[in-house]
Specification:
By secondary structure, this protein is α/β, with parallel strands linked by helices. Helix content is about 40%, strand content about 20%. Strand 11 and strand 12 form a beta hairpin.
Length: about 250
């Protein structure tokens, strides 16, 4: 890793939503702050967002700015953590897609890993790029026009991508080195003629980890039950309103 204070004076935006993979946000943020960077968590809503460890709820982090109030021009770099849920929510947000595009238009550094490249694909930034990601979304990245490599870290100009938590150390090193550079960044383009093939099987470590994780706590079960009850009640109310609307012509 670079020397301490290598990022002093730099301001980094971390774009995340509920369901971010905890280690993919907390470890890189700690590394950035240790190098002197000022880090803002930017999200879809104010307050805090909930992390996950695989599929289990984890602790929350405080949101510093919502997308509506965050100005890409005030940041020197962008980090997009992964996880199954957070990137899926972000890619459906027009504000999030525009926020990411603003960094690339100025050729500012962007670092992302795991499922984070989903957001780049939905923002229209994957075509013609060389990237990596969580192997399970390899086809999504290729279909978005990128060349996909099964590598720990891939650097393509202002973009650094990585596969996931298993590569977190290499990712943080490459991320820090990228954020030390001044925009606009064009150098460091990876050359690859073809994408690496699909995996033959999912990672055994991930399969075993999910199988042996503890069952949900009683509080989690109660929360899910309350959520389900709320959805059922909302649907009943909506169906009742639809029924009343359909019946009204016969009353007249």
């Amino acid at each position: 890793m670079p020397n301490s204070n290598a990022l002093k004076g730099r301001r980094i935006a971390v774009l995340a939503a509920d369901g971010f993979e905890k280690i993919e946000l907390t470890a890189p943020v700690a590394a950035l702050e240790a190098e002197g960077a000022v880090v803002d968590i930017v999200s879809l809503h104010s307050g805090s967002i909930r992390g996950v460890n695989l599929h289990e709820p984890a602790s929350k982090v405080r949101v510093n700015k919502t997308l509506r109030k965050a100005d890409p021009a005030r940041y020197d770099g962008l980090l997009i953590p992964g996880g199954f849920i957070s990137p899926d929510l972000l890619r459906q947000s027009a504000e999030a897609r525009a926020f990411v595009r603003a960094f690339d238009q100025r050729r500012k550094p962007i670092a992302t890993l795991c499922h984070g490249p989903w957001v780049l694909a939905s923002a229209g930034l994957a075509a013609g790029r060389t990237m990596t990601s969580w192997p399970g979304i390899r086809d999504d990245i290729v279909n978005a026009g990128a060349t996909w490599l099964d590598a720990e870290v891939v650097r393509d100009g202002n973009l650094v991508t990585s596969r996931g938590p298993q590569d977190i150390i290499s990712f943080m090193r490459a991320m820090t080195e990228l954020f030390m550079e001044q925009a606009p960044i064009f150098a460091g383009i990876a050359q690859a003629a073809h994408s690496d093939p699909q995996r033959e099987a999912p990672p055994e470590l991930m399969v075993q980890a999910i199988r042996w994780m503890p069952r949900p706590s009683f509080r989690t079960v109660l929360g899910l039950a309350a959520l389900g009850a709320g959805i059922i009640a909302m649907n009943r109310t909506r169906n009742g309103n639809i029924g009343a609307t359909q019946a009204s012509p016969s009353i007249m």
